# Entry
Amino acid sequence: MALDPQAQAVLEQLAALGLPDFTTLDPEVARQLSNVPPPSPPAVASVSERTIPGPAGEIPIRVYAPEGSAPFPGLVYFHGGGFVICGLDSHDGVCRELANESGCVVVSVDYRMAPEARFPAAPEDCYAATCWVAENAGEVGIDASRLAVGGDSAGGNLAAVVSLMARDRGGPTLRHQLLVYPVTNCAFDTASYHENAEGYMLTREMMKWFWGHYLGDDGDGAHAYASPLRAEKLAGVPPAHLITAEFDPLRDEGEAYAERLREAGVEVTGKRYAGVIHGFFSMTDAIDAGRAAVRDAALQLRLVLG
# Structure
């Protein structure tokens, strides 16, 4: 399919801004440029912030509650950004939309990022945050028996990895994983990496830059907690809703992960959204397919979590 006209318009608008190539910047500068809140985020019933214990200090979280009476189902959400950039503010809008559409309390996690904290710092923080939510669910209005994890891009990787960690470490019990164009493999050799190497916002060189900072010179990109597609076994993880975008370098590794989950007997829903680019899930004001994808993901959360 041809590039969606709305996605094309977004790319043209971004090009007109003349933003620097992130791969030429210091990671901290890139992080500051990327972690910007949306101009007019949707209202939710409440938003609160706090810190919780983590393996290397306090982890900031932001809690979004929908309308209604607690306890709600819960979604622990991990933002994208290649393990290097973005943060709570950049993903404020999508967390609000997910809370409103799904009826879940959404807990957004400000995990440690590379290169200051390389792998496995991020997954260990995300697992610790998920455990904290499960153990202290009542404090944030969540029913611990109806808990899911989710994330986009690098955050999709972290949601998949936390699902593996919960299986491997005996808990907590997760009912669902929402994987939005997830990073699943430290490799750059798929057809989608070649077809969409540049020109569609996320580039092949950006992904090399992200992985380089995340792993460093001696990191193990083949480890299942870095590249869940390489996990020896995937049985025993929760059902997944997996979203990919046609014009995205990560498309094929996301779809390969969905297939491996199915082969392992894990229920998988979701689809490839035609004509759109990486990041479209957070572009609901500009790309209609983004709003449709959020609604589809929220519907699945409602079906699974009640």
The mean pLDDT is 97.
